[in-house]
Design the sequence.
């Protein structure tokens, strides 16, 4: 495996981990927002 291919696969893995983290954070924020709205109402 070449160095550039190794870098690309590593970057792709970091990207997928980052997006997985981002999506879980976003869903947690949406749930918090819903709870707050329900709490206010």
Sequence:
């Amino acid at each position: 495996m070449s160095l550039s291919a190794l870098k690309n696969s590593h970057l792709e893995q970091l990207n997928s981990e980052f997006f997985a983290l981002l999506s879980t954070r976003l869903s947690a924020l949406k749930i918090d927002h819903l709870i707050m709205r329900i709490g206010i109402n």
